[in-house]
Each structure stands twice: as C-alpha cells, then as structure tokens.
Amino acid sequence: MAALGAEQVTEIVAGLTHMRNVNYLHVASLAILTFDTFLTIDIEVNFIWNAPWNIIKVLYLVTRYLTFIDTSLNVLLQFIPGASESTCKTLYQAGTWIILTGMCLAELIMTIRTWAVWGKTRWLGIALLIFFVGTWAAGFTVVGLLSGPYTFVLQDALYPLLKGCLVTGGRIESLQITWPLLLVYDGVIMLLMLIPAYEVFRRGGQSKLVRVVFRDGIIYYIYLFIMTLGNLIVTRKLR
Questions:
Q1: Does the structure show a pLDDT above 90 at 236?
Q2: pLDDT, tens digit, 9 for 90 and up, residues 6-51
Q3: Residue 178's closest CA among 67, 68, 104?
Q4: Using CA atoms, how far apart are residues 77 and 164, in angstroms rounded to an integer?
Q5: What are the pLDDT digits (tens) for 113-145?
Q6: Alpha carbon separation from 87 to 13, 90, 182, 212 (Å, rounded)
Q7: How far is CA 111 from the centre of its chain?
C-alpha cells in the first residue's frame, strides 16, 4: 500500500473510531434480530407461513428475512480476514442495496395498510402510488448514482490484528437528499394514519382489532419518523 498523507491518516483514525461503534451495533442488531425471531417464530408459522399466499404475505416474508442477509453482510464486511478491495466493494454494495430494498418493501407494506384504513379509496390509492414511486425512485437514484464511487482501506494493512474493510471515500453528503425524502414520506403517511384514528377514538373505537391497527400503525410511524430524523442528523455531522 502506498504511503498515506497526514490528512488520510486523520481520516482513517476517525473512520476506525466510528467503525468500532458501528461494529458493536451490527453485532448487537444481529443478536437482537435472532432473539426476536425465536420469540415469535411459533406465531409466524401459525399465522403467516400457513396462511394463503398473497402479495402482503410475500412482502412480509421478503422484508422479514432480508434483514438477516444485510445485517450478516455488514458484520462480514467488518470482520472478514484478508479481503481484497474488490471484495470489500462487493460486500458493501450488496449490503447497501439489500438494506434499501428492505426499507422500500417495509414502507410499501405500511403504505398499503394506510390505504386500507382509508377504505381503499381509488383517489388515495393512485395518490399514494405516485408518492411512493416518486420517493423511492429518487432514493434509489441518489444511492446508485450520486453517493459513490467508494474507496476502501483494508484494515489489516493498517495493523495486522485488524480485520475487515474501512470505507474511506464516497460522497456521503448526497445521502442528505435521501433522508429528507423519507422524512417527508413518513410524515405524510403518519398524518394519514392520525386523521382516521382521531375519528375512531373520538367515537370510542369500533373494535379492539381496529384500535390495535391504528395504535400500532401510529406508534410505528412515530418511531420511524424519529429514526429517519436521527439518520439525517448523523449524516450531516459526518459530512
């Protein structure tokens, strides 16, 4: 490896510090995901796997188990021994696209759910479809065309006891376009859940099932809105 300049060394040290924290989060995420799956696998088998096949079941299963793939790829990226730069690039790009696809499908499930609580009205269905396609087309374009090209430093080249890949190049500022898009999208969907929910709860609720649907949907989007805002703030700090 060619000699590194002072600026590159500073970037690498900062990157290694961030990478250590990211490694902890990735391993913890995989452990929590596995634990959660074992906690609910019996319910999932009874109510999802044995249910008739439809688009929602397919979306759920793909979204559910893509998370194991992308999380495993991220862990592998940080701990793979003796990796080449091309291997690092392949793992990073595969993990990025799988994460983005999983997010897109999860948002689609919640968008369909929102449309359902509005009675599947035609005008709202068309509006949500246009809104969804426009948001995610922009998101995939930003990640695919604007955020690269990425460069990597092999961590064992810095120190023999280190393993995995360290991302040292890429236009992270372009990701600042993606998070506001999702923030607006999630905000609109959350508002669309709040409007009928207010009417239902104002009238005392129609049934326990309806109340659960609204409650869980609203809680999910509040959580998602906060997480998206947090990602936007972190991305701006890493600029």
A1: no
A2: 666 676 666 667 767 777 887 888 898 899 899 989 989 998 999 9
A3: 104
A4: 6
A5: 889 888 899 999 999 999 999 999 988 888 776
A6: 22, 5, 30, 45
A7: 16
pLDDT of residue 57: 92
**Largest separation between any pair of C-alpha atoms in the chain:** 71
CA 138-221-238 angle, to 5 degrees, is: 55
Burial of 181 (0-12, 13-18, 19+ CB in 10 A): middle
User: What does pTM read for this prediction?
Assistant: 0.79
Q: Give yes or no for a contact between 169 and 175, defined as CB atoms under 8 angstroms apart.
A: no
- Bridge partners, residue 169, by sequence: 151
